[in-house]
Specification:
The chain is mainly α. It has 2 helices and no strands. The chain has helices spanning 9-30, 37-54. Helix 1 runs antiparallel to helix 2 (37-54). It is flat.
Length: 65
């Protein structure tokens, strides 16, 4: 866990978001689990969250002159 000190917070956040997806894929592949619609919705929410967090924020034009 000492290597976490050398990684940016944004990259660490993406890896943390990918953990549930990876766990679900391992369960499907190695444990022969069957995903339900609830799993698919949850995984889509995780992916959407990663995409939204990865987007660059647009700066609003300054109203001060």
């Amino acid at each position: 866990m000492k290597s976490i000190r050398h990684v940016d917070g944004s990259l660490a956040g993406v890896f943390c978001g990918l953990l549930p997806i990876t766990a679900a894929l391992y369960g499907i592949v190695f444990l022969d689990e069957r995903p339900t619609i609830a799993h698919e919705i949850a995984l889509a929410c995780v992916v959407a969250g990663i995409v939204l967090a990865s987007m660059k924020a647009k700066t609003a034009p300054s109203m001060i002159s």
